[in-house]
Amino acid sequence: MVSVLTSSALFKALLFLSLCSVWLLPDLALAKHAGITRHYKFNIKMQNVTRLCQTKSIVTVNGQFPGPRIIAREGDRLLIKVVNHVQYNVTIHWHGIRQLRSGWADGPAYVTQCPIQTGQSYVYNFTITGQRGTLFWHAHISWLRATLYGPIVILPKRHASYPFPQPFKEFPIVFGEWWKADTETIINQAMATGGAPNISDAFTINGLPGPSYNCSAKETFKLKVKTGKTYLLRLVNAALNDELFFRVANHTLTVVEADAVYVKPFKTDIVLITPGQTTNVLLKAKSKTPNAKFAMSARPYATGPATFDNTTTIGILEYKKSASASSSNNMNIPLLKAKLPQFNDSTYAMKFNQKIRSLATRKFQVKVPKKVDRRFFFTVGLGILPCSKNQTCQGPNNIRPAAGINNVSFVQPNTALLQAHFFNRSKGVYTTNFPTNPPFKFNYTGTPPKNIMLDSGTKLVSLNYNTSVELVMQDTGILGAESHPLHLHGFNFFVLAQGIGNFDPKRDPAKFNLVDPAERNTVGVPSGGWVAIRFLADNPGVWFMHCHLEVHTSWGLKMAWVVNDGKGPKQKLMPPPADLPKC
User: Fold this and answer.
1) In this predicted model, what pLDDT tens digit does every residue of 448-503 receive, in sequence order?
2) Which of 99, 345, 540, 561 has its CA 20 to 30 A from that of 388?
3) Cα separation, 525 vs 472, whole angstroms
């Protein structure tokens, strides 16, 4: 037992033993690997912020925009007290955190909790188990995540190293989306009128739009680097409705991690990142100081028929000059632009995503379920719904655009699904008859059926503990084919394959990668195509799955999985905390 301790740990152990009885020694060995408890306080408050020549009052954490960075190590416990000082109901989701047996801390409103009401508070209590890398937190109610978001940095355990060269410095690069108008007003009006919500006015890098927008040259993110050094950029797409291409002019990036899972490193000029995804890249600075500044540019990858914000946010990569270099010269240094793909370049998107493979080493193993207990085929896309009787909609015949999975547009309940499940009070709240397959077959990526009306309901899938699930998600051409980034709460899943056209259950499974597939929490269902994933339902609770394009979530492109308790004591959902908010 003592031989595995370091010299400093051994000294502490001997000191401890001199004060305590010998039977405590096994706990000491455990403590060496145990994490610590970290406390954060999030005061949700309004703050005046000026962007694009206009000042507006936005919802923030602690008055910061973007919100504060959370730093922890693998194995740490986090206690984050959220106090709501604003007029809106609030919840916070810790995007990508597994939340093993701690579903009460997951955060989606009316799924795992009732929202935190004005003047109320709630402590999110969870442990980071078996994860390290970049994730992020964001509001998970209505469109509040437009301004309520920030990065989560999970460092490896102490004395554990990265499986790539140690960077000189690390920087979060968080992409956001900015509206001049109030985003809650925008989505509420759109839902009331049955129209599409107004598109954003700008994209941002770490909250700043950059020089391509009016009066924003001073609101530009600048990254200052030293020659010859390697930097780790932690990319997060916190935008509401747009996938993004990202490039640093005249620099090559090495992708080393996706969704807080190490990947086989590969070089690329351009990164594609959907809302909900995170990507870590290494940037090696040039060996000699160049006489130039370099644009760090991001703009949308957009495949749908609707209008979108076709603008570009720019940050600037600058090389630190020696003290002797004059500052006047610095003003005249040219800014080299970054060339990005066409906004609808789905071929590039597919090729980029296929490069992402798990590390699959002895230390970082890939545990793909080899046998499958339950298979599901989900169509993912748009449709229409009738407007309510007391509502006048813009569409013909009083209909409105909607979205769904397997023809079901999800209806948000007015109480939390997890509470209904835990206390066996599901009657009148939800049913567990979500369809395993689409209700009828059609040429999913071809001519749409004549009837594109969706059903609606609060339907879930019920899974026994440790069920291995294979899920094929198929985009449809109804109201136009479109890439949909699907996010699954509570799990990572393995991306086995993707393709264009309709999934062929006889031929396509032969393409499944069961050796080193990407392990993610958010995956883009290709525009006019399909993606196949597998996951093990080893986390009891109710787990939301939805499109991370917020407009589609608002329209009903969402569902949930109920994973029942297992038999063992560590296979059961913990009871709810005493301060769980009430509806």
Assistant:
1) 999 999 999 999 999 999 999 999 999 999 999 999 999 999 999 999 999 999 99
2) 561
3) 9
Tens digit of each residue's pLDDT (9 = 90 or more) over 37-84: 999 999 999 999 999 999 999 999 999 999 999 999 999 999 999 999
The domain made up of 35-159 is a member of CATH 1.10.10.10: no
Which segments of 345-492 are extended strands (E)? 374-386, 399-405, 408-410, 455-457, 460-463, 467-475, 484-488
Residue 107 C-alpha from the chain's centroid: 13
Instruction: Give the number of C-alpha atoms closer than 13 A to the C-alpha of residue 257, restricted to the C-beta side.
Output: 26
Strand partners, 382: 403
Sheet holding 77-84, edge to edge: 54-61, 37-51, 77-84, 121-127
Amino acid at 290: P
Place of tokens 């078996």: 130
Kindly indicate whether the domain formed by 164-320+334-358 is annotated with CATH number 2.60.40.420: yes
Parallel/antiparallel/unpaired status of strands 133-139 and 149-155: antiparallel
| pTM of the model as a whole | 0.93
DSSP 583: -
Report the C-alpha gap between 474 and 525 in whole angstroms.
7
CB 123 within 8 A of CB 71: no
Per-residue pLDDT tens over the stretch 526-541: 999 999 999 999 999 9
Q: What string of DSSP letters covers 119-148?
A: T-EEEEEEE--S--EEEEEEE-STTGGGT-
Using DSSP, state whether 104 is helix, strand or coil.
helix
Domain coordinates in residue numbering, the chain: 35-159, 164-320+334-358, 374-564
Q: Is the distance from CB of 175 to CB of 238 less than 8 angstroms?
A: yes
